[in-house]
Amino acid sequence: MKSSQQSVSRRGVLSALGKLVAGAAALATARKVRAVTKQAVTTPAPAGYDPTKHQWRMALDVNKCIGCGSCADACKNENHVPRDPGYFRTWVERYIIKKAPHGSGEPCGETLVDSPNGSIGGFPPTLVPKSEILKAFHVPKLCNQCSNSPCDMACPVGATFRTPDGAVLVDPTYCIGCGFCVQACPYGCRFINPLSHTAEKCTFCYHRITRGLKPACAEVCPTGTRIFGDLKNAKPDDPLLQFYAKNRLQVLKPHLGTLPRVFYAGLDEEAR
To answer: Does position 24 have pLDDT exceeding 60, yes or no?
Structure first.
């Protein structure tokens, strides 16, 4: 009798596990189908574009960025971002790391970060004397298009969604402007548009890349800081693949587990 009960119990457990696995697989498939369907209906991609056949990525070479702000300006023009100083889909930050006070034993001193008008128009001369500066550099910022996006999980109405081709988008017809996604983003990459009252952020210029064009920021960058490409359709000599092969890739705030799809090379540990 005991043996029979154990047998029934094992069968029940195995059956339950089987149902859980099947349910999880069905849920994952349903989410993918829903993402593709939503993408086809609510994004500016052209008719016939198949998001499952692309995988978009952006990489940034910090050593090449000169802080000219051309990227931020082009982004505002291309995406009709409000010209007010507080609204940016992409911007550039200047990091100035001061020398450690004499005798402190520290490797470096205070870190100063600024981004006047998102870097549009360039940066004014720093007030920090050159003799006090250990190093200075610029870091372009934008939505990291996370594979494990906190904004997607925070949205209560499904307006934010991840696409199969590597972008995180916002459906303005669903967005209620609650701001939960703005608060959830650990990179400060979202804002509520004061005119539409809906959430906005970088989309990799989705209306451009799905038509074979580069994002506006990458198009105008004079130094080649921003490298953009499609990993699923890249040839061996593709600039993005070459960049991946020649550099140690880094992401912002890796400890958060958001799995960004925007990668950096030459990123200083002081960058945040």
So the answer is: no
Taking the C-alpha atoms of residue 109 and residue 4, their distance in angstroms, rounded to an integer, is 72
d(CA 116, CA 92): 9
Neighbours of 63 (CB within 10 A): 13
pTM (predicted TM-score): 0.83
pLDDT in tens, 33-59: 444 445 545 688 999 999 999 999 999
Which helix (H) or strand (E) segment is 58 a member of? strand 56-61
In three-state secondary structure terms, 131 is: helix
∠ CA 147-153-157, nearest 5°, is: 125
Contacts of 68 (CB under 8 A, 6+ apart): 119, 122, 222
196-228: b (≥16 Cβ within 10 Å) or e: eebbbbbbbbbebbbeeebbbbbbbbeeebbbb
Nearest to 96 by CA among 80, 106, 83, 109: 109
- C-alpha span between 224 and 239 (Å, rounded): 10
pLDDT at 270: 85
Res 233 pLDDT > 80: yes
Structure tokens at 23: 């349910």
Distance of alpha carbon 111 from alpha carbon 249, whole angstroms:
23
pLDDT score of 188 more than 90: yes
What is the structure's pLDDT at 41?
A: 52
Dmax (CA) of the chain: 87
Dist. CA 86–CA 117, nearest whole Å: 8
Is the domain spanning 31-89+142-272 CATH 3.40.50.10070? The answer is no
Question: Residue 98: what residue type?
Answer: K
